[in-house]
């Protein structure tokens, strides 16, 4: 919170710009997606996209900065297990994602022509927490692997950003054909955003149960991998 302008409010401002630009460009003709006005369809996806990007940024920067500055020793010296370290990192990622999501939702509630309704609380909580945890785990792995900031930026620019932008945030995948539809079907960001949107508008572009299972499986694999690398001190211990 000491740098909340960077960690909370800057992402909120950027997300609101996305909302205003796309609603002006695409929503003026009364466009309907999944049975709701385009602005109502777009808002949940933007909230979730910002949460995912910020949970990744939180853990990747925390680990990498500690390595570069040499303060990682302050994390390794206390009698904390690898599991406790992993839970702490993921807790930070989920907390930041929740703060960013709440700030954006509050701003959108005050915006004209945007209506946020809670249809399924469990879906909002499940996909919000599991999505933030997934990107938090990915951020820890990136921080462990990266040796300089350019490495982390490569993952952000060529993996996280494309997957989040091509996740169905701005459109339904039924509009896509061929390879792009197949890409969306294997993009975990799509299931996260579609599930979170389902929690708000009550309509989905995919099978919610399948999406929930896919995300659970991915998080399980990422958690095991992160735990093993932290326990071994991969690129942390000389």
UniProtKB/TrEMBL annotation:
Protein name: Transport permease protein
Keyword Cell cycle: no
Occurrences of domain ABC transmembrane type-2 (ranges): 2-233
Xref: InterPro entries: ABC-2_transport_permease, ABC2_TM, ABC2_TM_bact-type, ABC_2_transport
Membrane topology: Multi-pass membrane protein
Gene Ontology CC entries for this record: ATP-binding cassette (ABC) transporter complex
Family to which this protein belongs: Belongs to the ABC-2 integral membrane protein family.
Residues passing through the membrane, by range: 6-27, 34-52, 85-111, 123-146, 152-171, 178-196, 208-230
Pfam families attached to this UniProt entry: ABC2_membrane
UniProt GO MF annotations: ABC-type transporter activity
Keyword line: Cell membrane, Membrane, Transmembrane, Transmembrane helix, Transport
Top-level taxonomic group: Bacteria
């Amino acid at each position: 919170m000491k740098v909340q302008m960077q960690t909370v409010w800057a992402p909120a401002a950027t997300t609101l710009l996305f909302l205003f630009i796309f609603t002006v460009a695409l929503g003026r003709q009364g466009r309907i997606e999944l049975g709701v006005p385009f602005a109502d369809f777009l808002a949940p996806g933007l909230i979730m996209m910002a949460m995912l990007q910020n949970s990744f940024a939180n853990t990747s920067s925390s680990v990498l900065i500690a390595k570069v500055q040499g303060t990682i020793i302050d994390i390794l010296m206390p009698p904390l297990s690898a599991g406790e370290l992993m839970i702490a990192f993921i807790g930070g990622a989920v907390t930041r994602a929740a703060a960013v999501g709440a700030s954006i939702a509050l701003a959108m509630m005050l915006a004209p022509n945007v209506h946020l309704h809670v249809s399924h609380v469990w879906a909002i909580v499940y996909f919000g927490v599991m999505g933030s945890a997934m990107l938090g785990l990915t951020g820890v792995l990136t921080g462990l692997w990266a040796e300089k900031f350019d490495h982390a930026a490569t993952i952000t620019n060529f993996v996280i950003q494309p997957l989040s932008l091509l996740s169905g945030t701005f459109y339904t995948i039924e509009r896509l054909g061929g390879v792009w539809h197949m890409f969306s079907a294997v993009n975990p960001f799509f299931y996260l955003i579609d599930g979170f949107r389902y929690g708000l508008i009550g309509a989905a572009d995919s099978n919610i149960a399948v999406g929930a299972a896919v995300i659970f499986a991915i998080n399980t694999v990422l958690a095991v991998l992160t735990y093993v690398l932290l326990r071994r001190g991969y690129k942390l211990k000389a």
